[in-house]
Amino acid sequence: MKLSDLIKGLSIKASIGSMDYDIKSLCFDSRKAEQGAMFVAQKGTQSDGHVYIPFVIEKGALAVVCEVFPEQMPEGVCFIQVESSDEALGCLSCQWFGNPSEKLQLVGVTGTNGKTTIATLLYETFKRFGHKTGLLSTVCNYVDDEAIHATHTTPDSYAINELLSKMADAGCEYAFMEVSSHSIDQRRIAGLRFVGGIFTNLTRDHLDYHLTVENYLKAKKRFFDELSKDSFALTNADDKNGMVMLQNTKAHKYEYSTKTLADFKAKVLENHFEGMLLDINGREVAVQFIGLFNVSNLLAVYGATCLLGKKPEEVLLIMSMLKPVSGRLEFMRSPTGFLCIVDYAHTPDALKNVLRSINELVQGGHNVITVVGAGGNRDKGKRPIMAKEAVAGSNKVILTSDNPRFEEPQDILDDMYAGVNAGDSSKVLCIIDRKEAIKTACMIAQPGDVILVAGKGHEDYQDIKGVKHPFDDKKVIAEVYSSLQ
After folding, report:
1. Domain boundaries 97-319, CATH class
2. What is the DSSP string of 134-152?
3. CATH 3.10.50.40 fits 330-484, yes or no
4. Which of 28, 123, 442, 466 has the fewest C-beta atoms lying within 10 Å of its C-beta?
Protein backbone atom coordinates (compact mmCIF):
# COMPACT_ATOMS: atom_id res chain seq x y z
CA MET A 1 0.00 0.00 0.00
CA LYS A 2 1.23 3.50 -0.79
CA LEU A 3 2.34 5.28 2.38
CA SER A 4 0.27 8.31 1.39
CA ASP A 5 -2.86 6.10 1.27
CA LEU A 6 -2.04 4.25 4.49
CA ILE A 7 -1.85 7.43 6.57
CA LYS A 8 -5.18 8.85 5.33
CA GLY A 9 -7.18 9.93 8.36
CA LEU A 10 -4.13 9.83 10.65
CA SER A 11 -3.66 12.88 12.87
CA ILE A 12 -0.04 13.87 12.14
CA LYS A 13 1.94 16.43 14.19
CA ALA A 14 4.97 16.48 11.89
CA SER A 15 6.67 14.39 9.22
CA ILE A 16 10.11 14.14 7.64
CA GLY A 17 10.77 12.28 4.39
CA SER A 18 8.89 11.09 1.33
CA MET A 19 5.31 9.80 1.51
CA ASP A 20 5.69 8.01 -1.83
CA TYR A 21 6.99 4.66 -0.56
CA ASP A 22 5.26 1.33 -1.14
CA ILE A 23 4.72 -0.20 2.30
CA LYS A 24 4.95 -4.00 2.34
CA SER A 25 3.89 -4.65 5.95
CA LEU A 26 2.69 -2.94 9.11
CA CYS A 27 4.25 -3.92 12.45
CA PHE A 28 4.62 -2.78 16.04
CA ASP A 29 6.89 -5.63 17.18
CA SER A 30 10.47 -4.77 16.11
CA ARG A 31 11.25 -8.50 15.76
CA LYS A 32 8.75 -8.69 12.88
CA ALA A 33 10.17 -5.71 11.00
CA GLU A 34 11.26 -6.46 7.43
CA GLN A 35 12.27 -4.76 4.20
CA GLY A 36 9.58 -2.23 3.22
CA ALA A 37 7.80 -2.23 6.62
CA MET A 38 6.12 0.57 8.50
CA PHE A 39 7.00 0.38 12.19
CA VAL A 40 4.82 1.92 14.90
CA ALA A 41 6.84 2.72 18.04
CA GLN A 42 4.62 2.36 21.12
CA LYS A 43 5.41 3.18 24.72
CA GLY A 44 4.33 -0.14 26.25
CA THR A 45 4.00 -1.21 29.88
CA GLN A 46 7.10 -3.44 29.59
CA SER A 47 9.30 -1.61 27.07
CA ASP A 48 9.40 1.47 24.83
CA GLY A 49 9.25 0.78 21.09
CA HIS A 50 11.13 4.02 20.38
CA VAL A 51 14.32 2.28 21.57
CA TYR A 52 14.06 -0.16 18.65
CA ILE A 53 13.76 2.41 15.84
CA PRO A 54 17.46 2.07 14.76
CA PHE A 55 17.04 -1.72 14.73
CA VAL A 56 13.96 -1.69 12.42
CA ILE A 57 15.66 0.80 10.06
CA GLU A 58 18.59 -1.61 9.83
CA LYS A 59 16.15 -4.34 8.86
CA GLY A 60 14.78 -2.20 6.04
CA ALA A 61 11.77 -0.34 7.45
CA LEU A 62 10.74 2.53 5.15
CA ALA A 63 8.47 4.40 7.56
CA VAL A 64 8.41 4.96 11.32
CA VAL A 65 5.47 6.29 13.32
CA CYS A 66 6.53 7.67 16.70
CA GLU A 67 5.58 10.10 19.44
CA VAL A 68 9.12 11.52 19.67
CA PHE A 69 11.48 11.82 16.72
CA PRO A 70 14.72 9.84 17.20
CA GLU A 71 18.06 11.65 17.28
CA GLN A 72 19.22 9.92 14.11
CA MET A 73 16.84 10.14 11.11
CA PRO A 74 18.64 8.72 8.07
CA GLU A 75 17.52 9.54 4.54
CA GLY A 76 15.39 7.00 2.72
CA VAL A 77 13.03 6.60 5.70
CA CYS A 78 9.86 8.58 6.39
CA PHE A 79 9.38 9.62 10.04
CA ILE A 80 5.86 10.51 11.16
CA GLN A 81 5.22 12.08 14.56
CA VAL A 82 1.84 11.57 16.25
CA GLU A 83 0.31 12.42 19.60
CA SER A 84 -0.47 8.78 20.42
CA SER A 85 1.21 5.80 18.76
CA ASP A 86 -1.48 3.52 20.24
CA GLU A 87 -4.20 5.56 18.55
CA ALA A 88 -2.19 5.65 15.33
CA LEU A 89 -1.73 1.87 15.27
CA GLY A 90 -5.48 1.40 15.57
CA CYS A 91 -6.21 3.76 12.68
CA LEU A 92 -3.38 2.38 10.52
CA SER A 93 -4.54 -1.22 11.14
CA CYS A 94 -8.06 -0.30 10.02
CA GLN A 95 -6.68 1.30 6.86
CA TRP A 96 -4.24 -1.55 6.18
CA PHE A 97 -7.07 -4.11 6.13
CA GLY A 98 -9.47 -1.89 4.18
CA ASN A 99 -11.59 -0.75 7.17
CA PRO A 100 -13.34 -4.10 7.66
CA SER A 101 -15.51 -2.86 10.55
CA GLU A 102 -17.36 -0.70 8.02
CA LYS A 103 -18.35 -3.84 6.09
CA LEU A 104 -19.93 -5.46 9.18
CA GLN A 105 -22.59 -4.72 11.74
CA LEU A 106 -20.12 -4.62 14.65
CA VAL A 107 -21.42 -4.52 18.25
CA GLY A 108 -19.11 -4.13 21.26
CA VAL A 109 -19.85 -5.42 24.76
CA THR A 110 -18.04 -3.91 27.75
CA GLY A 111 -18.33 -4.21 31.54
CA THR A 112 -16.74 -6.20 34.37
CA ASN A 113 -18.87 -9.34 34.16
CA GLY A 114 -21.10 -10.83 31.47
CA LYS A 115 -19.15 -9.75 28.36
CA THR A 116 -18.38 -13.28 27.18
CA THR A 117 -21.90 -14.57 27.77
CA ILE A 118 -23.59 -11.66 25.98
CA ALA A 119 -21.21 -11.54 23.00
CA THR A 120 -21.31 -15.32 22.55
CA LEU A 121 -25.11 -15.55 22.84
CA LEU A 122 -25.48 -12.74 20.30
CA TYR A 123 -23.22 -14.71 17.96
CA GLU A 124 -25.30 -17.87 18.53
CA THR A 125 -28.55 -15.92 18.05
CA PHE A 126 -27.59 -14.43 14.71
CA LYS A 127 -26.22 -17.78 13.53
CA ARG A 128 -29.63 -19.27 14.30
CA PHE A 129 -31.25 -16.46 12.34
CA GLY A 130 -29.25 -17.76 9.38
CA HIS A 131 -26.61 -15.03 9.18
CA LYS A 132 -22.88 -15.53 8.72
CA THR A 133 -21.53 -14.06 11.95
CA GLY A 134 -18.21 -13.36 13.68
CA LEU A 135 -17.18 -13.37 17.34
CA LEU A 136 -14.21 -11.92 19.24
CA SER A 137 -14.29 -13.23 22.80
CA THR A 138 -12.29 -14.44 25.79
CA VAL A 139 -13.13 -18.10 25.14
CA CYS A 140 -12.69 -18.32 21.37
CA ASN A 141 -12.85 -16.19 18.22
CA TYR A 142 -15.06 -17.30 15.35
CA VAL A 143 -15.09 -16.38 11.67
CA ASP A 144 -18.54 -17.79 10.99
CA ASP A 145 -18.00 -21.50 11.82
CA GLU A 146 -14.19 -21.37 11.90
CA ALA A 147 -12.80 -21.33 15.43
CA ILE A 148 -9.63 -19.28 16.04
CA HIS A 149 -7.86 -19.56 19.40
CA ALA A 150 -8.21 -16.49 21.64
CA THR A 151 -5.25 -15.25 23.69
CA HIS A 152 -6.75 -12.01 25.08
CA THR A 153 -10.24 -10.70 25.84
CA THR A 154 -9.58 -8.08 23.16
CA PRO A 155 -6.59 -8.67 20.82
CA ASP A 156 -4.19 -5.94 19.60
CA SER A 157 -5.35 -3.49 16.90
CA TYR A 158 -3.69 -5.36 14.06
CA ALA A 159 -5.13 -8.73 15.11
CA ILE A 160 -8.62 -7.25 15.59
CA ASN A 161 -8.66 -5.83 12.09
CA GLU A 162 -7.15 -8.98 10.63
CA LEU A 163 -9.97 -11.02 12.21
CA LEU A 164 -12.63 -8.54 11.10
CA SER A 165 -11.17 -8.64 7.59
CA LYS A 166 -11.43 -12.44 7.55
CA MET A 167 -15.05 -12.11 8.71
CA ALA A 168 -15.86 -9.64 5.94
CA ASP A 169 -14.12 -11.81 3.33
CA ALA A 170 -16.07 -14.85 4.57
CA GLY A 171 -19.32 -12.98 4.01
CA CYS A 172 -20.14 -12.29 7.64
CA GLU A 173 -22.84 -9.67 8.10
CA TYR A 174 -22.56 -9.27 11.88
CA ALA A 175 -19.74 -9.39 14.41
CA PHE A 176 -19.89 -9.29 18.21
CA MET A 177 -16.88 -8.31 20.27
CA GLU A 178 -15.88 -8.19 23.90
CA VAL A 179 -14.31 -4.80 24.58
CA SER A 180 -12.02 -4.85 27.63
CA SER A 181 -11.06 -1.77 29.62
CA HIS A 182 -7.41 -2.40 28.68
CA SER A 183 -8.26 -2.31 24.99
CA ILE A 184 -10.15 0.97 25.35
CA ASP A 185 -7.37 2.58 27.39
CA GLN A 186 -4.65 1.30 25.05
CA ARG A 187 -6.65 2.42 21.98
CA ARG A 188 -6.75 -1.05 20.44
CA ILE A 189 -10.24 -0.27 19.15
CA ALA A 190 -9.28 3.12 17.62
CA GLY A 191 -10.69 3.56 14.14
CA LEU A 192 -13.33 0.81 14.42
CA ARG A 193 -16.93 1.59 13.47
CA PHE A 194 -19.40 0.15 15.95
CA VAL A 195 -23.13 0.08 15.20
CA GLY A 196 -23.83 -0.53 18.87
CA GLY A 197 -22.36 -0.76 22.35
CA ILE A 198 -23.61 -2.70 25.39
CA PHE A 199 -22.71 -2.01 29.03
CA THR A 200 -23.12 -4.88 31.52
CA ASN A 201 -21.94 -3.68 34.95
CA LEU A 202 -18.92 -2.29 36.74
CA THR A 203 -17.39 -3.74 39.90
CA ARG A 204 -13.85 -3.91 41.25
CA ASP A 205 -11.39 -5.48 38.81
CA HIS A 206 -8.07 -4.75 37.05
CA LEU A 207 -6.97 -2.20 39.66
CA ASP A 208 -3.43 -3.51 39.21
CA TYR A 209 -3.62 -1.73 35.84
CA HIS A 210 -6.11 1.13 36.28
CA LEU A 211 -5.08 1.86 39.92
CA THR A 212 -8.48 3.38 40.84
CA VAL A 213 -12.12 2.45 40.21
CA GLU A 214 -12.60 5.95 38.74
CA ASN A 215 -9.94 5.30 36.07
CA TYR A 216 -11.54 1.92 35.34
CA LEU A 217 -14.95 3.62 34.96
CA LYS A 218 -13.54 6.32 32.67
CA ALA A 219 -12.03 3.68 30.39
CA LYS A 220 -15.41 1.95 30.01
CA LYS A 221 -17.22 5.26 29.51
CA ARG A 222 -14.84 6.34 26.76
CA PHE A 223 -16.16 3.51 24.58
CA PHE A 224 -19.67 5.02 24.72
CA ASP A 225 -18.41 8.60 24.41
CA GLU A 226 -16.91 7.65 21.03
CA LEU A 227 -19.94 5.89 19.55
CA SER A 228 -21.42 7.67 16.51
CA LYS A 229 -24.87 9.26 16.33
CA ASP A 230 -25.98 6.44 14.01
CA SER A 231 -25.27 3.71 16.57
CA PHE A 232 -27.07 2.52 19.71
CA ALA A 233 -25.89 2.49 23.33
CA LEU A 234 -27.64 -0.14 25.47
CA THR A 235 -26.97 0.04 29.21
CA ASN A 236 -27.86 -1.89 32.35
CA ALA A 237 -30.08 0.46 34.35
CA ASP A 238 -29.74 -1.82 37.40
CA ASP A 239 -26.04 -0.99 37.73
CA LYS A 240 -25.21 2.24 39.57
CA ASN A 241 -22.85 3.21 36.75
CA GLY A 242 -25.25 2.27 33.97
CA MET A 243 -26.54 5.76 33.31
CA VAL A 244 -23.05 7.26 33.62
CA MET A 245 -22.14 5.42 30.43
CA LEU A 246 -24.82 7.33 28.51
CA GLN A 247 -23.99 10.82 29.80
CA ASN A 248 -21.93 12.01 26.83
CA THR A 249 -22.71 9.52 24.11
CA LYS A 250 -24.04 10.69 20.74
CA ALA A 251 -25.58 7.26 20.16
CA HIS A 252 -29.29 6.44 20.53
CA LYS A 253 -29.80 5.55 24.21
CA TYR A 254 -31.59 2.44 25.51
CA GLU A 255 -31.83 0.72 28.89
CA TYR A 256 -32.50 -2.80 30.15
CA SER A 257 -33.53 -3.72 33.70
CA THR A 258 -34.90 -6.39 36.03
CA LYS A 259 -35.89 -3.80 38.65
CA THR A 260 -37.17 -0.60 37.09
CA LEU A 261 -38.91 0.80 34.01
CA ALA A 262 -36.76 0.35 30.93
CA ASP A 263 -36.93 -0.22 27.19
CA PHE A 264 -36.23 -3.90 27.82
CA LYS A 265 -37.65 -5.27 31.09
CA ALA A 266 -37.71 -8.77 32.58
CA LYS A 267 -38.91 -10.58 35.68
CA VAL A 268 -38.47 -14.17 36.83
CA LEU A 269 -41.70 -16.19 36.97
CA GLU A 270 -40.16 -19.58 37.81
CA ASN A 271 -36.63 -20.63 38.79
CA HIS A 272 -35.12 -24.15 38.76
CA PHE A 273 -31.66 -25.71 38.27
CA GLU A 274 -32.89 -26.70 34.79
CA GLY A 275 -33.64 -23.06 33.88
CA MET A 276 -36.08 -20.17 34.34
CA LEU A 277 -39.42 -18.97 33.04
CA LEU A 278 -39.14 -15.25 32.30
CA ASP A 279 -41.46 -12.43 31.39
CA ILE A 280 -39.66 -10.15 28.91
CA ASN A 281 -41.58 -7.06 27.82
CA GLY A 282 -44.89 -8.80 28.50
CA ARG A 283 -44.02 -12.07 26.73
CA GLU A 284 -43.16 -15.36 28.47
CA VAL A 285 -40.09 -17.39 27.54
CA ALA A 286 -38.46 -20.48 29.08
CA VAL A 287 -34.64 -20.32 29.07
CA GLN A 288 -31.89 -22.80 29.94
CA PHE A 289 -30.09 -20.44 32.34
CA ILE A 290 -30.22 -19.69 36.06
CA GLY A 291 -29.45 -16.60 38.13
CA LEU A 292 -30.64 -13.00 38.12
CA PHE A 293 -27.34 -11.90 36.55
CA ASN A 294 -28.13 -14.19 33.60
CA VAL A 295 -31.55 -12.54 33.30
CA SER A 296 -29.65 -9.28 32.78
CA ASN A 297 -27.34 -10.95 30.26
CA LEU A 298 -30.29 -12.36 28.32
CA LEU A 299 -32.04 -8.99 28.39
CA ALA A 300 -28.97 -7.39 26.83
CA VAL A 301 -29.02 -10.07 24.11
CA TYR A 302 -32.74 -9.56 23.55
CA GLY A 303 -32.45 -5.78 23.46
CA ALA A 304 -29.47 -5.68 21.12
CA THR A 305 -31.04 -8.22 18.75
CA CYS A 306 -34.26 -6.20 18.57
CA LEU A 307 -32.25 -2.99 18.01
CA LEU A 308 -30.51 -4.74 15.13
CA GLY A 309 -33.90 -5.19 13.49
CA LYS A 310 -35.18 -8.60 14.53
CA LYS A 311 -38.81 -9.21 15.57
CA PRO A 312 -39.28 -9.67 19.36
CA GLU A 313 -41.29 -12.91 19.07
CA GLU A 314 -38.63 -14.45 16.80
CA VAL A 315 -35.86 -13.38 19.18
CA LEU A 316 -37.62 -15.03 22.15
CA LEU A 317 -38.05 -18.29 20.21
CA ILE A 318 -34.30 -18.43 19.56
CA MET A 319 -33.48 -17.41 23.14
CA SER A 320 -35.38 -20.47 24.41
CA MET A 321 -32.89 -22.66 22.48
CA LEU A 322 -29.68 -21.00 23.70
CA LYS A 323 -27.39 -22.82 26.13
CA PRO A 324 -24.88 -21.48 28.71
CA VAL A 325 -21.43 -20.50 27.43
CA SER A 326 -18.43 -22.75 28.16
CA GLY A 327 -17.27 -22.33 31.76
CA ARG A 328 -20.19 -20.10 32.71
CA LEU A 329 -22.44 -21.88 35.24
CA GLU A 330 -21.80 -25.24 33.58
CA PHE A 331 -23.45 -28.13 35.46
CA MET A 332 -21.92 -31.58 35.97
CA ARG A 333 -24.10 -34.05 37.91
CA SER A 334 -22.26 -36.74 39.84
CA PRO A 335 -23.29 -40.41 39.85
CA THR A 336 -23.75 -40.16 43.64
CA GLY A 337 -26.26 -37.30 43.58
CA PHE A 338 -24.33 -34.07 44.16
CA LEU A 339 -23.85 -31.33 41.58
CA CYS A 340 -20.67 -29.55 40.44
CA ILE A 341 -20.90 -26.13 38.81
CA VAL A 342 -17.90 -24.68 36.96
CA ASP A 343 -17.90 -20.91 36.59
CA TYR A 344 -15.40 -18.24 35.51
CA ALA A 345 -16.33 -15.97 38.46
CA HIS A 346 -13.01 -14.30 39.31
CA THR A 347 -14.20 -11.01 40.85
CA PRO A 348 -15.93 -10.54 44.23
CA ASP A 349 -19.16 -9.38 42.59
CA ALA A 350 -19.27 -12.26 40.11
CA LEU A 351 -18.64 -14.78 42.91
CA LYS A 352 -21.34 -13.18 45.05
CA ASN A 353 -23.87 -13.31 42.19
CA VAL A 354 -23.15 -16.94 41.32
CA LEU A 355 -23.40 -18.06 44.95
CA ARG A 356 -26.63 -16.11 45.41
CA SER A 357 -28.12 -17.88 42.39
CA ILE A 358 -27.01 -21.30 43.67
CA ASN A 359 -28.35 -20.68 47.19
CA GLU A 360 -31.75 -19.71 45.79
CA LEU A 361 -32.04 -23.20 44.28
CA VAL A 362 -30.38 -25.49 46.84
CA GLN A 363 -32.95 -27.51 48.75
CA GLY A 364 -33.12 -27.11 52.53
CA GLY A 365 -30.52 -29.02 54.53
CA HIS A 366 -28.07 -29.38 51.66
CA ASN A 367 -24.71 -27.64 51.51
CA VAL A 368 -22.90 -25.31 49.13
CA ILE A 369 -19.17 -26.06 48.89
CA THR A 370 -16.98 -23.51 47.10
CA VAL A 371 -13.52 -24.10 45.64
CA VAL A 372 -11.91 -20.77 44.74
CA GLY A 373 -8.55 -19.03 44.33
CA ALA A 374 -7.20 -15.74 43.01
CA GLY A 375 -4.77 -14.95 40.20
CA GLY A 376 -1.16 -14.05 40.88
CA ASN A 377 0.40 -10.74 39.78
CA ARG A 378 -3.03 -9.10 39.64
CA ASP A 379 -5.11 -6.87 41.92
CA LYS A 380 -4.17 -8.08 45.43
CA GLY A 381 -6.86 -5.97 47.08
CA LYS A 382 -9.67 -8.19 45.84
CA ARG A 383 -8.22 -11.39 47.36
CA PRO A 384 -9.59 -11.03 50.92
CA ILE A 385 -12.90 -9.81 49.47
CA MET A 386 -13.13 -12.93 47.30
CA ALA A 387 -12.65 -15.15 50.35
CA LYS A 388 -15.16 -13.12 52.34
CA GLU A 389 -17.82 -13.51 49.62
CA ALA A 390 -17.08 -17.24 49.32
CA VAL A 391 -17.53 -17.76 53.06
CA ALA A 392 -20.71 -15.65 53.16
CA GLY A 393 -22.36 -17.75 50.43
CA SER A 394 -21.08 -21.24 51.32
CA ASN A 395 -21.26 -23.87 54.03
CA LYS A 396 -17.69 -24.93 53.27
CA VAL A 397 -14.89 -23.13 51.39
CA ILE A 398 -11.67 -24.56 50.00
CA LEU A 399 -9.13 -21.86 49.09
CA THR A 400 -6.75 -23.04 46.40
CA SER A 401 -4.51 -22.00 43.51
CA ASP A 402 -5.89 -20.25 40.43
CA ASN A 403 -3.18 -18.99 38.04
CA PRO A 404 -0.38 -18.11 40.50
CA ARG A 405 1.84 -16.80 37.67
CA PHE A 406 5.07 -15.56 39.26
CA GLU A 407 3.79 -15.41 42.85
CA GLU A 408 4.02 -18.12 45.48
CA PRO A 409 0.59 -19.83 45.79
CA GLN A 410 0.83 -19.84 49.60
CA ASP A 411 1.25 -16.04 49.63
CA ILE A 412 -1.92 -15.66 47.55
CA LEU A 413 -3.85 -17.97 49.88
CA ASP A 414 -2.58 -16.01 52.90
CA ASP A 415 -3.89 -12.80 51.29
CA MET A 416 -7.27 -14.45 50.73
CA TYR A 417 -7.45 -15.96 54.21
CA ALA A 418 -7.03 -12.48 55.68
CA GLY A 419 -10.65 -11.88 54.63
CA VAL A 420 -11.96 -14.76 56.76
CA ASN A 421 -13.36 -13.82 60.19
CA ALA A 422 -12.13 -15.87 63.13
CA GLY A 423 -15.65 -17.20 63.67
CA ASP A 424 -15.74 -18.61 60.15
CA SER A 425 -12.30 -20.25 60.14
CA SER A 426 -13.79 -23.71 60.79
CA LYS A 427 -15.61 -23.46 57.43
CA VAL A 428 -12.38 -22.91 55.48
CA LEU A 429 -9.70 -25.30 54.20
CA CYS A 430 -6.54 -24.23 52.35
CA ILE A 431 -5.31 -26.73 49.76
CA ILE A 432 -2.72 -25.29 47.37
CA ASP A 433 -2.99 -28.08 44.77
CA ARG A 434 -6.14 -27.23 42.75
CA LYS A 435 -6.71 -30.83 41.67
CA GLU A 436 -6.59 -32.02 45.28
CA ALA A 437 -8.90 -29.17 46.31
CA ILE A 438 -11.52 -30.24 43.75
CA LYS A 439 -11.14 -33.90 44.75
CA THR A 440 -11.56 -33.00 48.43
CA ALA A 441 -14.74 -31.04 47.71
CA CYS A 442 -16.17 -34.06 45.88
CA MET A 443 -15.17 -36.40 48.72
CA ILE A 444 -17.00 -34.38 51.37
CA ALA A 445 -20.09 -33.64 49.24
CA GLN A 446 -23.29 -35.49 50.08
CA PRO A 447 -26.26 -36.21 47.77
CA GLY A 448 -28.10 -32.94 47.13
CA ASP A 449 -25.06 -30.75 47.85
CA VAL A 450 -23.73 -28.29 45.26
CA ILE A 451 -20.03 -27.67 44.62
CA LEU A 452 -18.99 -24.43 42.93
CA VAL A 453 -15.56 -24.55 41.29
CA ALA A 454 -14.90 -20.89 40.58
CA GLY A 455 -12.33 -18.69 38.90
CA LYS A 456 -11.09 -20.50 35.79
CA GLY A 457 -14.21 -21.59 33.91
CA HIS A 458 -13.28 -22.33 30.27
CA GLU A 459 -9.50 -22.13 30.85
CA ASP A 460 -7.60 -25.34 30.09
CA TYR A 461 -4.30 -24.39 31.75
CA GLN A 462 -2.66 -23.15 34.94
CA ASP A 463 -0.14 -20.33 34.55
CA ILE A 464 2.79 -21.14 36.88
CA LYS A 465 6.16 -19.33 36.69
CA GLY A 466 5.56 -18.30 33.08
CA VAL A 467 4.57 -21.81 31.92
CA LYS A 468 1.00 -22.77 31.01
CA HIS A 469 0.47 -26.28 32.36
CA PRO A 470 -2.54 -28.27 31.05
CA PHE A 471 -5.36 -28.02 33.60
CA ASP A 472 -9.12 -28.10 33.09
CA ASP A 473 -11.53 -27.95 36.05
CA LYS A 474 -14.16 -29.89 34.08
CA LYS A 475 -11.74 -32.70 33.22
CA VAL A 476 -10.66 -33.01 36.85
CA ILE A 477 -14.30 -33.25 37.93
CA ALA A 478 -14.99 -35.86 35.24
CA GLU A 479 -12.02 -37.93 36.51
CA VAL A 480 -13.38 -37.79 40.05
CA TYR A 481 -16.86 -38.78 38.83
CA SER A 482 -15.46 -41.82 37.00
CA SER A 483 -13.84 -43.01 40.23
CA LEU A 484 -17.19 -42.74 42.02
CA GLN A 485 -19.03 -45.04 39.59
Report:
1. alpha beta
2. EEE-SSEEEETTEEEE-SS
3. no
4. 466
